[in-house]
């Protein structure tokens, strides 16, 4: 599987529509890849809180349409990062979209853990409640977004649903870049999965972004890492074989105890 992570620049120098067009062109340039990944909230910027409401769109709005066409034209599976979604009742969600090579929307994931404590995303957006996986030829993706990376129980749940490749689009700030790398490697090691973590470049509402998109294998080895600027990171992977081999050689997941069903008492 060839995966391309598009570490886009997000700043005030272009409009949302201009960025949609640029993202669409970048996706089309990845024809020949199997999976393409965009960052979190690349239409607005993850820290542009004041723009969330004005830029929110329905699940099948203009970003959906642009990304669907780009995935179809490139013939790739596309994790289109996330958008500020406005649900039918008016609630905003930070929602990731995954498209099949046909352009069909294969899955959507509403971010469960909202960042900001008592401000920003935490108060402006609703929380998702469902874990989501997507079946691709050769691997099962587990979906998470940015701040989710700090909550290992979410990823354990994805593994229980069959995930072999964890995809994490983000708008991670530069001042906590060390955490970004550390947590991506930790989630890979503890779950014996690949981690594809795609961040943004540029500045969101005055907050410099970490960049440094990263691909980590199930042993925690960094296979590729971007720099701070706009960059495309492309890596060839074999998740089905490597994950199975890792779990066979070091079967730590079999030794889990917390979360198991209570043992059935012996019969009379």
Automatic annotation (TrEMBL):
Keyword Chaperone carried by entry: no
Presence of keyword Cell membrane: no
PROSITE patterns associated with the record: CN_HYDROLASE (PS50263), UPF0012 (PS01227)
Limits of the CN hydrolase domain: 1-239
One of the record's GO molecular function terms: hydrolase activity
Keyword vocabulary terms for this entry: Hydrolase
CDD domains: nitrilase_5
InterPro entries for the chain: C-N_Hydrolase, C-N_Hydrolase_sf, UPF0012_CS
Pfam families reported for this sequence: CN_hydrolase (PF00795)
Record-stated family: Belongs to the carbon-nitrogen hydrolase superfamily. NIT1/NIT2 family.
UniProt name for this protein: Carbon-nitrogen family hydrolase
Source organism per UniProt: Streptomyces chilikensis
